[in-house]
Amino acid sequence: MSFGLTNAPAAFMDLMNRVCRPMLDRSVIVFIDDILVYSKNEGDHACHLREVLETLRREKLYAKFSKCAFWLHEVQFLGHVINADGILVDPSKIQAVANWSLPKNPTDVRSFLGLAGYYRRFIQDFAKIASSLTKLTRKDVKFVWGDDQEKAFQELKSKLTQAPVLTLPDGPDDFVVYSDASYLGLGCVLMQRGKVIAYASRQLKTHEINYPIHDLKLAAVVFALKIWRHYLYGVKCTIYTDHKSLKYFFTQKELNMRQRRWLELLKDYDCEILYHPGKANVVADALSRKEECEPIKVKAMQLVITSDNSGKAKTCYSMAIDAKVHKKASMD
């Protein structure tokens, strides 16, 4: 295949998918010209490796021996390190993040968010943390680097350099999703047998800010099912939410058009929605439990008391109030 063609990567990826289709997601993962063969034990691995090599020879595809590595217990693949314990961030990428210089313009911010966003599955509430940086990339927003942006930048660097080891899925059973939502964004975590597989989060779209809290919590459930469809479709899973009424969503008779559309999507999955109190939610630092209502602050107050001829007291109040009241973040 010629170099430089726009469609070359897509065409070659399609070829590899067709060639390796019988082995995909069973013992082989393919990304363009990178082939990862995985097995549970050495005996199975010998069979899987032989099957892959015979397939390549039959299809007249050749691998350069000097670029191949065999019988590894730990492997670097697409920016991740995979071993028996699970999956973690490639140390070389962590070093690049740690040494990242302060962004000077929106392009620099996009570059940083591009690298950080690739590892967002390792960072809980990624969208919430990066919200102040994301705003700087918008078209009509003036680039002003303030305390909020500096805090978000340093926090993302810190969390990436201390990213946890995520477990790999072990079979199609016992998947559990914890979902949460607030007017700051949506957040969820995928677990299996008490171990975290991935985190996911995103900011709200413009129209979603107007959703009632019931629909907002339901949107978090739909978001989780869509983003982890490859794990959850066709298997039984349990979804926990801190909004109790969602437990009865499948039996509700009166639904609006948006809820009906989401109901059709949920029926494609073998899922059960259960109530889980927000304080007990595994999604630590839950978005919906963040206090957003600031107290009203009185900057000045003047009290004047006078008496009229009839001896009655008359009181006049003059206040200057500086207050900013947000929408309530959670309401069960």
UniProtKB/TrEMBL annotation:
Protein's name according to its UniProt entry: Reverse transcriptase domain-containing protein
Please report the organism this UniProt entry assigns to the protein: Mikania micrantha (bitter vine)
Kindly state which keywords UniProt assigns to this record, in alphabetical order: Endonuclease, Hydrolase, Nuclease, Nucleotidyltransferase, RNA-directed DNA polymerase, Transferase
UniProt keyword annotation of Nucleotidyltransferase present? yes
GO MF term set: endonuclease activity; hydrolase activity; RNA-directed DNA polymerase activity
Q: Does the keyword Cell membrane apply?
A: no
Tell me where on the tree of life, at the top rank, the source sits.
Eukaryota
> Which residue numbers delimit the Reverse transcriptase domain?
1-82
Under CDD domains, the record lists: RNase_HI_RT_Ty3, RT_LTR
